[in-house]
Amino acid sequence: MTRHFLRDDDLSQAEQSAILDLAVEMKRDRWAAKPLAGPQSVAVIFDKSSTRTRVSFHVGISDLGGSPLIISTANSQLGGKETPTDTARVLERMVSAIVWRTYGQAGLEEMAASTTVPVVNALSDDFHPCQLLADLLTIREHRGALAGQTIAFVGDGASNMAHSYLLACATAGMHVRVGAPAEFAPAAQVVTDAEARAAETGGSVLVVTDPVAAVAGADVVVTDTWVSMGKEEEKQQRLEVFHGYRVDDELLAHAADDAVFMHCLPADRGYEVTAEVIDGPRSIIWDEAENRLHAQKALLAWLLAANTTAAASATTDAATTGN
Predict the structure, then answer these.
(1) Residue 29 annotated in ligand binding
(2) Residue 101 marked as a ligand binder
(3) What is the CATH number of the domain that holds 316?
């Protein structure tokens, strides 16, 4: 069975840790691994605008010896005349993996069900799992082992970032808290899934409406824009609802004395976070941004290796059965 990465809990705790270990090695010796030598091509499809995702995947695929094939859906048949299934069946004959930054999670799931090459969720409305691999790598660099750390997400709990923090951090054995207005709480099923994973890993999940309760004693404090792509018409309403959830020095003072601050960027300075925090001594956002490159390289290398091993095993099993 082909391994894909569509949401954070597609990986077990051990698999997540193995990818992060590989990312550390790749960051230490950036051009040593060439699993895409040939060069093999990777299709990187964009429905949404992007800076960090576009650059990190383009550079990362090149670092791995491959050729990044950047596709805009505005200039392709996908989303217009052609279904994700038909696109996947064409691409799998020409590329070694498919990376897609899109809107609906259902399209990713349809594409993954239709192809024999790995499909990677580079962002959807529901999850942003590649960002979380970079975030976990950054936390490891600055705070050591992930298990047992407490991380607080403050802001839009119904966002793809909040959902991914719940699933990825629970998978890592962390204590993850989300502080969000009641009308912007995380999806109930995502919370349930995160709680189930936390029960396996020794982590925990807490969803509250009080941002101070979420941040109190936390080792890591994170936030994201209050107005995501596609929600611009709701900006004024959201600014009113999220009043009090801004990460400023006063809120950050409730975290642990050595707590760090993270933001996936781009940031609306003065809205979800103050300039003093994002540019301050606790902020590790630039390491976080760089680590998109290393984490995604490790993810692609791991998926290619996992699928090669699975294919070899299936071939061996088939040969044995035939005999």
Answers:
(1) no
(2) yes
(3) 3.40.50.1370
Q: Tens digits of per-residue pLDDT, 216-264?
A: 999 999 999 987 766 677 778 888 899 899 999 999 999 999 999 999 9
169 is in an annotated binding site: no
Our answer to whether residue 7 is catalytic in this structure is: no
CA 23 to chain centre: 14
Encode 243-263: b = buried (16+ Cβ within 10 Å), e = exposed: eebbbeeebbebbbeebbbbb
| Options 156, 224, 246, 296, the catalytic residue | 224
CA 224/CA 130 separation, integer angstroms = 15
Tell me which of 7, 101, 140, 294 is the catalytic residue.
101
Contact yes or no for 42/99 (Cβ under 8 A):
yes
Taking only the tens place, the pLDDT of each residue in 160-189 is 999 999 999 999 999 999 999 999 999 999
CA distance 308 to 302: 10
Regarding whether 271 and 147 lie in a shared domain, the answer is yes
Q: How far, in Å, are 68, 78, 125, 207 from residue 182 at the CA level?
A: 42, 36, 19, 10
Same domain flag for 31 and 89: yes
**In sequence order, what are the beta bridge partners of 154?**
179, 223
Q: Which domain holds residue 60?
A: 8-127+293-320
Give the DSSP letter of residue 254: T
Is 292 part of any known ligand binding site? Answer: yes
Pick from 252, 249, 240: which is nearest to 211 by CA? 252
State whether 203 and 86 are in the same domain: no
Phi and psi for 222 in degrees, rounded to 5? Answer: -135, 155
Which pair of tokens denotes residue 17?
A: 């840790």
Q: For residue 281, say if its preceding peptide bond is cis, omega within 30 degrees of 0.
A: no
pTM of the complete model: 0.94
